[in-house]
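Here is one such protein, fold included:

. . .
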Amino acid sequence: MNGVDWYWAIELPEHFLAEHPVGTVLGRAEYGDYFCVYQGVTVGGNWKQGEIYYPKIGNHVTCYANTSIIGRCEIGDYVVISANSFLKDVQIPDGSLVFGSSPRLVVKNYGKSRIWGYFSECWEVE
């Protein structure tokens, strides 16, 4: 695992996939099962009013290239985050496709079944 920076104390889920992990930084977030990252993904904290907050990432979440998830984010289950997206201190509901940058994110509710299609391709499951 060359070219990645994964904080030594993170607890990765039982199932996770680093498809092309070069340049990926994973900080002290809570990671759900079946977490998938591509190159250049950053997950990290944000200082706010003297405290540092880290993301909570649900199950079956895929982060495409150059995604950043920073601060008090709560990412639901079955979420796809598009390439070059920047999320800071936001809540994303289950079954969403996300793109853009905070504070003007675009969140499309695709539902869990449609997101499952993206997920099953990534993990090669039926």
Summary: Residues 58 and 77 are 5 Å apart (CA to CA). Residues 111-123 form the longest helix (13 residues).
